[in-house]
Amino acid sequence: AIISVLINGEKLKLFLHDLYEMMNKFQIDCSLKKLFIITEIFIVSNLILDGAFWIATVGIYIFKYYIGRSLYFFIYTTAVSVGNHVNHTELKLENILAVYQRDLREIRRNQFVIYESISVYNKLFGYQILFATIVAIIYTLDLLMLCLTFSKNMCMDNPQQILGLITVCFLWMITIFVLISLVAYACDRTVSEYERTILICYKYLNQLPISLKRDNEFILQNELLAIIEQTNRLQLKFTAAGFFNVDVTMLGFIFGSVTSYIIVAMQFIEI
């Protein structure tokens, strides 16, 4: 996944450059460093616990270090940045409409930049999200199977060690679910903010008088209708390489897949 992102290095540079320009334009104060530090501390803590329990069980030569656990967080922070740009665009739209300024074309230009940014985002991270979701499901199932296996051996000579291994497995399952949830929430929030543009435009269209007499009212009406048409034509969505949309509904898909497998696995274990 990391190599495939680096292959598209030029697109990634342009994408991050556009995000940086939008942040400067709207003067967005991004506080993602705090989120990054908290997430990394949590992941490092899990790695320490994971390593300690597995080394104590199978030895240091068999223990394998896991690479790329923070890829989902990078995808999440990128989606949050795009979502912040969408949100600031909507706020700017409301402020402009509140004072009935004439030129709303900047809003349309910003919307088009956001749409292009999301298209690049899907090209850069679509397959990564798809593969990471598949790996997350497989890894979660593997951890659950380990928990079921360990729970059947709780009466062995060292129950505390087995309890520690079960705890580590649950911590990694929680980490995987949290990272996937963050990506899904960030993408879903961005799309919701983008679609809210139509509601804002209709809100102010309904406030215009039925018979328009002044030039600024005609300009405002035409610009609002143009923004509505552009929003309807440029449907914004995050996709995992076209296989499914990246939003909160994907959490139900993952949860359903894991639950169905676990029910079947428990029946086989009982047999």
TrEMBL record:
Pfam family, one: 7tm_7
A Gene Ontology BP annotation from the UniProt entry: male courtship behavior
InterPro entries: 7TM_chemorcpt
Residue ranges crossing the lipid bilayer per the database entry: 35-63, 125-150, 162-186, 248-269
Membrane topology field: Multi-pass membrane protein
GO-annotated cellular components: axon; dendrite; neuronal cell body; plasma membrane
Keyword Membrane belongs to the record: yes
Keywords: Cell membrane, Membrane, Receptor, Transducer, Transmembrane, Transmembrane helix
Keyword Transmembrane helix (UniProt): yes
Main location: membrane
Intracellular or extracellular location(s): Cell membrane
PANTHER family cross-referenced by the UniProt entry: GUSTATORY RECEPTOR 8A-RELATED, INVERTEBRATE GUSTATORY RECEPTOR
Name recorded for this polypeptide: GR8
Species in which this protein is naturally found: Hycleus phaleratus
